[in-house]
Amino acid sequence: MIRLAIFFIFLMSPLSQVSANEEVSQKEKNALIDLYNSTNGSQWNTTWDLEAPVDTWKGVEVKDGHVVGLKLFMNNLEGTLPESIGKLTYLTQLNLAFNSITGVLPKDIVNLKRLQELRLEMNRIKGAIPDGIGQLSELEIFSMFNNFLSGSIPESFGELKNLKELNLSSNNLKGIIPTAIGNLTQLETLGLFENSLEGNIPQEIGNLGKLKELVLANNQLGGEIPAEFGQLASLQILQLQNNKFDSFTGLKAMNADQFLVFDSDDKSLEPRFNEIHFERTRMADTKFEDEDENE
């Protein structure tokens, strides 16, 4: 009985309780410090006290001793993303949108296998999207509109079967829309506005039964609108203007009543649709999902 009493007292003592400030591994902490140093952390709107526990740093979410969230939306980050960001392998959310991040995407970003949300919109990131992006099998949101991305859209995007939002609008992307995009049966938003994409729209787009928003305006797309567009029963926003299509026949199979926003270069369709002209900034909206992001 005495031993049980001593054991009970030990369990209840402050020394035995898990600290509220559970420390992360040195590897993950170093990766965060690399980000701080490479993006001029001392000049952030809300900076980090590097001597304080990691879970007290703005925008850092820690769970079970690992960094699972990094949300530094609109926090005046200036500089490049370090390669070591790929060491935050427990990360599920990465939101560094609306900053002044430059350079290219680190190749090791494809190591973030648990990542569900990647938001880097409204920065100055250049270069190509890594071909290995398809390794991020848990990804639901990939948003990098309004950057300086170049090269083509990787075919491996088609491996991201959980993807709900893909927004690459207002970049410098070239080439075709990969047919593999048609594999993304959970996709609800596809934004490719204002790039230099060419070729035909793949008929596989018709497989995207949950698609609500399709914005392909201001590219060099041509050929005919696929007849498979008639299968997009959930589509509410469709914008195709300022391309080089030969025919819009594929649109005539669609239900005009389903649209909230519609715009194309075929003015003969106007009486059938409630047209709302496209605003360049529409696809530059972002969601204010985190209360602490505006503090």
Describe the structure.
The chain is mainly beta and 295 residues long. It folds into two domains: 23-117, Leucine-rich repeat, LRR (right-handed beta-alpha superhelix), CATH 3.80.10.10; 128-283, Ribonuclease Inhibitor (Leucine-rich repeat, LRR (right-handed beta-alpha superhelix)). It has two helices and 18 strands. It has helices at 2-12, 26-38, and strands at residues 60-63, 66-71, 78-80, 93-95, 100-102, 117-119, 126-127, 141-143, 148-149, 165-167, 174-175, 189-191, 196-199, 213-215, 220-224, 237-239, 244-247, 261-263. The chain has a ten-stranded mixed sheet, with no helix packed on it. A four-stranded parallel sheet has the order 11-13-15-17, with no helix packed on it. β1 (60-63) and β2 (66-71) form a beta hairpin. It is elongated, with a radius of gyration of 23 Å.
Keywords:
2 domains, four-stranded parallel sheet, elongated, mainly beta, disordered C terminus, Leucine-rich repeat, LRR (right-handed beta-alpha superhelix), 295 residues, 18 strands, ten-stranded mixed sheet
The largest beta-sheet arranges its strands as 1-2-4-6-8-10-12-14-16-18
Our count of helices gives 2
User: Could you name the ranges where pLDDT drops below 50 across 5 or more consecutive residues?
Assistant: 1-20, 271-295
CATH superfamily of the largest domain: Ribonuclease Inhibitor
The chain-level mean pLDDT equals 87
For the record, the CATH class of the largest domain is Alpha Beta
Query: What Rg do the Cα atoms give?
Result: 23 Å
Return the structural class: mainly beta
Largest sheet: 10 strands, mixed
Classify the fold: give the CATH topology of the largest domain: Leucine-rich repeat, LRR (right-handed beta-alpha superhelix)
DSSP helix fraction: under 10%
Number of domains: 2
How do the helices and strands follow one another from N- to C-terminus?
HHEEEEEEEEEEEEEEEEEE
Give the CATH architecture of the largest domain.
Answer: Alpha-Beta Horseshoe
Query: What is the 3D shape?
Result: elongated
Number of E-state strands = 18
The proportion of residues in beta strands is 15-25%
